[in-house]
Amino acid sequence: MEGMIKVTFSIDWDLLKEFDGLCRRKGFENRSKAIRDIIEDFILTEKIKKSKINKEDKGNFAIIAKSNSPLQIENYLSIAIPINSYYLTFVILSKATYKEAETKFKSIKEENILRSCQLIQI
Question: Is residue 9 helix, strand or coil?
């Protein structure tokens, strides 16, 4: 990333209150950090869609999650690494379909308080 640029936008008051509550529950430091992570997730999702992955082909995938505490991921090879004030958890899905990896990715995001989470094919 080259540098930060300030961006302003308008948002409905009720939507902002709901967003702020979600940011607190997810452990974001501030709105800017939350919005950056949301934009990164959106871009990654679009890149995955454009790569035209056949959802039934088997491959190797990694889920990388950034959280305030180590994640316990059962039935998968995973490791949580402490880095400063957060943990990076790597989950490896070997010989999985994209659909299986995407399902696990969504369940990790729904079941845990995360700073960010990404799914990549390796």
Answer: coil
Task: Tell if the pTM clears 0.85, that is, is over it.
Answer: no
- As for how many domains the chain has, the answer is 1
Q: Given its phi and psi angles, is residue 110 left (phi above 0), alpha (psi -120 to 50 degrees) or beta? A: alpha
pLDDT at 16 (0 to 100)? 93
pLDDT at 14: 94
Residue 13, pLDDT score: 94
Residue 5 lies in a domain: no
What confidence score (pLDDT) does residue 55 get? 66
Range of the domain at 90: 13-121
Please check whether residue 8 lies inside any domain of the structure: no
The phi, psi pair for 28, rounded to 5°, reads -70, 145
> Is position 3 within any domain?
no
Q: What is the CATH number of the domain that holds 74?
A: 3.30.70
In a domain, 66, yes or no: yes
d(CA 72, CA 44): 24
List of the chain residues with pLDDT < 50: none
DSSP percent split of the chain into helix, strand, coil, nearest 5? 40, 30, 30
